[in-house]
Amino acid sequence: MNSRISLAISFILVAFPISAMAGGDPGNLAEVGILKFKFEPQVITIKAGDTVRWTNNEKRQYHSVWFEALGEPEAPYFFPGENYERTFNNPGEFPYRCGPHPKMTGTVIVE
Known about the structure:
2 helices, 3-stranded mixed beta sheet, alpha/beta, 4-stranded mixed beta sheet
């Protein structure tokens, strides 16, 4: 076997564990849209291990998803047509807001 191919296969096996490649439970994907300076839905309930994707559906405005109450830094801004994702592994209530638009708020409830 070519040494480059062998090295590539070794990298893949280290970077992507067999359990993930074999179809381990990656959780579900929940969607939150952003339009007219609102998160829709404003409150979303998911299960631990699920991922939330926020999609900016505005025509010209950028936004962020900031879990400020957790003491985290503001996530990067994302522009129309772009999205931001976060996986929630622990149960709880996670309030967030848009950094540049503090009146835009939402909550992720993880069961």
